[in-house]
Amino acid sequence: MKRITVFCGSSFGTEEIYKEQATLLGKTLAKENIELVYGGANVGLMGAVADGVLNEGGKAIGVLPNFLRSKEIAHLGLTELILVESMHERKTKMNDLSDGVIALPGGFGTLEELFEMLTWAQLGLHKKPIAILNINGFYDALIQLTENMVEKGLLKEVNQQMLLVSDNIDDLLDKMKNYVAPTVGKWIDKEKS
């Protein structure tokens, strides 16, 4: 993996460990010679992961829609800042630039980005690893929800298992490096389920 996209909050959240782990993820990516692709802001967890990369001499590429420049405040120290016109263009560009995805704690935007990448993988549009760094159990309820989707027959287990999860950065990167995309289609056949 040469580049990883990180989706995360533009706020820090209520627990200091979110910022600590975002910074550590950035440092780890730089040490592993993996470039960061992210939303381009210098605030919240977004800024922390970028600063972690840059402070270790790594490369950070931001993709920021023009209309968010004043709200998310573009990071001025990036290796490259790519300005786009829309959120859709942002996600497409981030996908084009990266070899995998990691989600850190965040809100609706983080979830929307994560689930769009999962959906694209489920449909066979890409075969990239998609992961959650489950800091301090932040995503426990979401993981339980995906298990419920499988149990209720609305999601194949093989598709649920596309979502790689760990609370440890090194373990998560190892899972991503060894990921093999499923070859099964998305649709559940009532006769076979």
The CATH C-level name is: Alpha Beta
CATH topology: Rossmann fold
The overall pLDDT, averaged over residues, is: 93
The total tally of domains equals 1
Tell how many strands the DSSP assignment holds.
7
Rg measurement, Å = 16 Å
Give a verbal description of the structure.
Its EC number is 3.2.2.n1. InterPro entries: LOG, LOG_fam. The protein is about 45% helix and about 15% strand. With about 190 residues, the protein is of the alpha/beta class. Strands 4-3-2-1-5-6-7 form a seven-stranded parallel β-sheet, sandwiched between helices. Strand 5 (about 100-105), helix 5 and strand 6 (about 130-135) form a beta-alpha-beta unit. It starts with a strand and ends in a 16-residue tail after the last helix.
Secondary-structure map:
Elements: E1 3-7, H1 16-31, E2 35-38, H2 44-55, E3 60-65, H3 69-73, E4 80-84, H4 87-97, E5 101-103, H5 108-122, E6 130-133, H6 140-151, H7 157-160, E7 163-166, H8 169-177
Parallel strand pairs: 1-2, 1-5, 2-3, 3-4, 5-6, 6-7
